[in-house]
Amino acid sequence: MASAFFIVRATVKDATRREAFDAWYAKEHLPDAARSFGVAKAWRFWSKTDPAIHQAMYQFDDEAALERAVGGDEMKRLIADFNRDWPDVSRTRETLLLAEELSR
Asked: Which CATH number characterizes residue 20's domain?
């Protein structure tokens, strides 16, 4: 079975709030989401092309695990927590299935 990935892309337009957003995501949201989803790995990125773009990626063992996580009550709670703390930060969500992996 192929690994599945859940990606959340947030746009933090106000440059003065990025440091606080970064700290909140690192200390609170990413650990909470990773634990709630039961993921194998999670990553966070800031775009070098557009400094307003933050992306979080969660790796699931398979598509079924991803679907359970994003369709469950924990996902609703995580969204509510995000909306409460960062109401002005827009975001999109995407799911991906691993097509190929190449290691050297």
From this structure: 3.30.70.100
